[in-house]
Design brief:
Largest sheet: 16 strands, antiparallel, barrel
Oligomer: single chain
Number of domains: 1
Strand content: over 45%
CATH superfamily: Carbohydrate-selective porin OprB
CATH architecture: Beta Barrel
Structural class: mainly beta
CATH topology: Porin
CATH class: Mainly Beta
Number of helices: 7
Distance between the termini: 45 Å
Helix content: under 10%
Order of helices and strands: HHEEHEHEEHEEHEEEEEEEEHEEE
Length: about 425
């Protein structure tokens, strides 16, 4: 049965699992250098030699500064960052094992994130986490049927494949990645940054336009009863089984009617949840499951010369209000690309997210700490490519009812993120 969380605990849950930070994977090129790397154009015989043997690797650093200038639970500035390294091994090149790939990545999270000051459910930054050195994903993928079917096994982050909007990925608030409704309703935030779960994923693409994804994961990425799941699975090496099962299924259809777009429809269900996690808010009866449905639209609405484009996105999700803490969610936004003369790779975007607290949950425990029925956030940012492999993103966010608490003033946040990719 699902424990009612105090408002002060929700930001911690958001911190654990909102959003996702994923490295730019190396192109299968002769020199083994990713397209967006500062090493493009360098003469690196070591990296090229590894690439010829099927080994691609990289190193990225992201750092950010934020200042909560008004509202929230406290004011002040913070700095946090993330160092990530990854390796992809093509087993066909290395061993002659056709269609097989091994992937691993790890990172070091450091600093204090700004959500400690806003007190919001939606994490200000999708980088925030417990300061530690952590293994993220470690999996084997096997391609079959001329690459139409791909099977993946190991420690997997669901937020790298499920509930993704390509347009929403331009935004820094965690809810525009692994949406707040998933992180709130799934056990310990679900298999999403900075925690993964043991599982398997199948991706079937019978045509170039249609992809069907299905993943089955251990029901919790950490001890389901831990007050701090990140501390419980501090280094990402607690490869858990036996916490029930989480099933996620999604279908994606790409189309082009003059301008390209994608529609996705999916759902998730938690089976055999550990006792004490979920329960019926109306009757108090213990439950072993929770579930949700979602839909996503990505659409380019205008395309000009020299890479100029305007794209929009929308995502909506719902879960049963009688046993889900957050029962409704939507977000939407617009992204302008290449509109500054001479800066084709720069983007400017605006996005809005809204999460509704279940009325049944509020009635069941009026002392749970919620005095508002929702939290929402507006984000504006501009991503500038300083040079190949280096970007700077000034960012503004405004929160209504942070933590779903009316006693906490609406919060204003200014910040900036810098990235360096090798």
């Amino acid at each position: 049965m699902q424990r009612i969380l105090k408002a002060g605990a929700l930001p911690a849950l958001a911190l654990m699992a909102f959003g996702a930070v994923s490295a730019a994977r190396a192109d299968d090129a002769a020199n083994g250098v990713p397209e967006d790397s500062i090493a493009q154009g360098w003469n690196d015989p070591v990296r090229a030699a590894f690439a010829q043997r099927g080994v691609l690797y990289g190193l990225n650093y992201t750092g950010e500064y934020y200042d909560v200038t008004s509202g929230g639970v406290s004011r002040g500035s913070t700095y946090n960052g993330l160092i990530e390294t990854y390796v992809d091994i093509d087993l066909q090149k290395m061993l002659g094992w056709r269609g097989a790939t091994i992937h691993a990545n790890a990172y070091y999270v450091h600093g204090i994130g700004p959500t400690t000051n806003t007190g919001s459910i939606f994490a200000v930054s999708n980088l925030e986490g417990l300061e530690t050195l952590r293994l993220d994903e470690l999996w084997l993928e096997q391609s079959l049927l001329d690459d139409k079917l791909k099977l993946k096994f190991g420690a997997i982050a669901a937020d790298t494949e499920f509930f993704i909007s390509d347009t929403a990925a331009a935004f820094l608030n965690g809810t525009f990645g692994w949406a707040g409704i998933l992180a709130t309703n799934m056990i310990q935030g679900g298999p999403a940054y900075p925690l993964t779960s043991m599982g398997a994923r199948a991706a079937f693409a019978p045509t170039d336009n249609l992809t069907i994804l299905a993943g089955i994961f251990n029901g919790s990425p950490a001890d389901p009863y831990a007050d701090d799941p990140q501390a419980s699975n501090r280094h990402g090496t607690d490869f858990r089984f036996g916490d029930g099962a989480l099933l996620i299924v999604e279908g994606a259809f790409k189309y082009d009617v003059g301008l390209p777009g994608t529609v996705k429809v999916g759902g998730w269900r938690q089976f055999d949840a550990p006792e004490g996690i979920y329960f019926n808010f109306k009757t108090g009866e213990p439950l072993e499951q929770d579930s949700g449905l979602y839909a996503i639209v990505d659409q380019q609405i205008w395309k000009g010369a020299d890479g100029q484009a305007v794209s929009i996105f929308g995502r909506v999700s719902g879960s049963p209000k009688n046993h889900s803490l957050m029962d409704a969610y939507f977000d939407t936004g617009v992204l302008f690309s290449g509109f500054v003369p001479g800066r084709a790779n720069d983007t400017f975007g605006a996005a809005f997210g809204y999460g509704q607290i279940s009325a049944d949950a509020l009635r069941y425990d009026p002392d749970a700490g919620f005095s508002a029925t929702y939290e929402s956030v507006l984000e504006l940012n501009y991503k500038a490519e300083i040079c190949k492999g280096i970007t700077l993103t000034p960012d503004f966010q405004y929160f209504w009812n942070p933590g779903a608490v009316t006693e906490v003033d609406h919060a204003t946040v200014f910040g900036a993120r810098a990235t360096v990719s090798y």
